[in-house]
Structures are given as structure tokens and as C-alpha cells.
Amino acid sequence: MSKKVGIARAHTNIALIKYWGKRDKDLFLPMNSSLSLTLDAFYTDTKVVFDDSLTADEFYLNHQKQSEKENQKISQFLNLFREYTGERTYARVDSLNFVPTAAGLASSASAFAALALATATALGLEISREELSTFARRGSGSSTRSLFGGFVEWDMGTSSADSMAHPIDDASWDIGMIILAVDTGKKKIASRVGMEHTVQTSPFYPMWVETAAQDLKEIKAAIAQRDFERVGQLTEHNGMKMHATTLSANPPFTYWTADTVRAQDAVRQVREDLGLPAYMTMDAGPNVKVLCRASDMERLVNGLTEYLPTEQVLTSLPGCGAYTLSDADWQESQGTFSRGGDHD
């Protein structure tokens, strides 16, 4: 019996210029390019073992064997690599998610980025990180960006071959993010479902695509100039525009809850009271993320915890790109998870 093993860690990312809408659902080609910040606080560790003794692929998430539906999704993803390399062996996939799943905290981004790198490592696939992102994209669009650290752009491209991510800036200039995790339960409307419904029914959607392209151009210029306040302003405006498209869908829907609105009000009040730049964004979920200067984070957290429970206020610095782990690292990760590390 022979085994091929790969282990990898990838961090979540939060989009500052959002990806919202696909022009090709099968190839996961987006309607617009996007830009994100990779976070160090949340991540996924994944081990892939191609084993010729297996008679089918197996998928375990957080030590729990997954449903046939989830297993099939992983098998389809692994097939991309098998078709590319000629590999015929089935694999066992074990993932540990150190981030709440399906709560708008980009767990799918870290999950598929880690899976892509672990699979490529197991199969000895030597391709660029940019090209690897075209594989990751087929599992989760936003996972393209989690292969890199700091500020990352996912270029929409013209085809499947060039719709890929690349790093923009390492975000080492006093960048931080506060996560207001007001609801970490599974959201009622999956991102893919909400996205498709919005594209099909919102009269505002064409303007979203047009303005997102301009937002991307402007935020890249602001990052190059290290103009934090301009980066923040563009981040907040772009996020609010994305959520406006869901409210204008037919029938309308929203990922916001009453707690989301309370968290937004808290951010506005604290930045007014303290006079500190802090800018909100939200992905397809109820939780609020606050882009801020790392040096202001402690004061902002102290202010926010006057309005919100302390356990809901999380912090993160910029994270690095995905990387491979040793078997010893994997054993340590399992121990951390078993001891109740930051996971569901």
C-alpha cells in the first residue's frame, strides 16, 4: 500500500472590495474583481492522504464524518487535481476549522485554500501559487485570496485560466481588524443562493458591478499610497452597496439581524466618541468587521465592549499566505482543537 500525504494551513480573508455574483456558476468566474485582507486569527488546517486501500473519498470536518452531499463536493474538487495529474487514487480529507463555519467569517475561503495546497503537496504538483488559485476557485471563489497574505486581489480574468489571485501589499503598515461576532450560527441563506438571486432579480445589480470596478481601482491606489482613511472609506461604502443589492432583490432579503444593526450603531458611536478612523464591512452574514489601525485597536475594543458583550469582540492582525505543515504540526493542531481552541 502506498500513501501520498499533504498538510496545509490557510487563513481566512475578509473582502474589502466584495465579490458578489458569478458570470459562470460552474467555473466560479466572478462578475467583478475583488480585494481582501487576510487575517491571522482564523484558519483551517487540512490533511489529505491519497491511499490506494480506499474504495471512495472520505471527508472529516472537525473529526466528524460528513454527509454524502459534502463528501461529493470534496470529491468533485479532488477530481480537478486527479484529472490534471492523472492520479487515480481515492483520498481521505481531514479538516480542522479554527473559525466558526458558515457564519459569514469566510470559513470556506480558508477551507478550500488549505485543501488546494494540501492536495497539490500530496501529489507533488509544482505550479505557481497564482495557478493554484485557479484550482482553489472551483471550491470557493474567495479561497483564491486566502492563498496569499496581506492585501490580495482576485482578478476576474477573461477565462478560467486567468481568473486568479495575486498579492498586492503585505499590510504591514499598522493595519488591524476587529470582528464583531454577533451571531456565529449557520446563516439561513447560503452565499451562493443569495448571490444568484441578487444577480437575477436586483435592478441595482448592474450598477454594483460598474461601481465595484471603480472602487477596486481607487482602493489599490490608496493602498499604494498607504492612505488608510481612503482605504477605509472605500471599504465601508463598497460593503454597504453590496448589501443594498440584497435589499433590492425580488423578493428582498438581508443577512443583517437586529444585532447587526446594534453593532453598526456601536461602531459609529465609538468612532465619533474617540475620534478614531474605523470602517465597517460585512460579508454575506450578520457579523460586522471593522478595519482600523492596529495601534488603535485596544482603544476601539474598550469602547465597543461598552455596547457589546466582550466575547463578541474579536481582533486580528493581517495574516500570511497558506503554507504546508509537517506531521508534527498536524498533531499539535489536533491537540489544540481537542483542547477547545478557537473553533465552533
Q: Quick gist of this model?
A:
With 344 residues, the protein is an alpha+beta fold. Helices cover 39% and strands 25% of the residues. InterPro entries: GHMP_kinase_C_sf, Mev_decarb, Mev_diP_decarb, MVD-like_N, Mvd1_C, Ribosomal_Su5_D2-typ_SF, Ribsml_uS5_D2-typ_fold_subgr.
Folded structure, characterized:
This protein is α+β, with helices and mostly antiparallel strands and 344 residues long. The protein is built from ten helices and 14 strands. The chain has two domains: 178 residues, Ribosomal Protein S5, domain 2, CATH 3.30.230.10; 142 residues, 2-Layer Sandwich (Alpha-Beta Plaits), CATH 3.30.70. The strands form three sheets. Strands 1, 4, 5, 6, 7, 8, 9 and 14 form an eight-stranded mixed β-sheet that branches. Strand 8 and strand 9 form a beta hairpin.
Note poorly predicted spans: none
- Helix fraction, binned, reads 25-40%
Largest beta-sheet characterization: 8 strands, mixed
CA-based gyration radius: 20 Å
What's the rounded overall pLDDT mean?
A: 94
CATH topology of the largest domain: Ribosomal Protein S5, domain 2
Number of domains: 2
CATH architecture of the largest domain: 2-Layer Sandwich
Task: Please indicate the percent range of residues in DSSP E strands (runs of 2 or more).
Answer: 15-25%
- Choose one word for the global shape: globular
Structural class comes to alpha+beta
Total helical segments: 10
Number of strands: 14
| SSE string, helices as H and strands as E | EEEEEEHEHHHEEEHHHHEEHEEH
Q: Output the CATH class name of the largest domain.
A: Alpha Beta
Distance from N terminus to C terminus (CA atoms, Å) equals: 35 Å
Keywords: ATP-binding, Lipid biosynthesis, Lipid metabolism, Lyase, Nucleotide-binding
EC number: 4.1.1.33
InterPro entries: GHMP_kinase_C_sf, Mev_decarb, Mev_diP_decarb, MVD-like_N, Mvd1_C, Ribosomal_Su5_D2-typ_SF, Ribsml_uS5_D2-typ_fold_subgr
GO cellular component, one term: cytosol
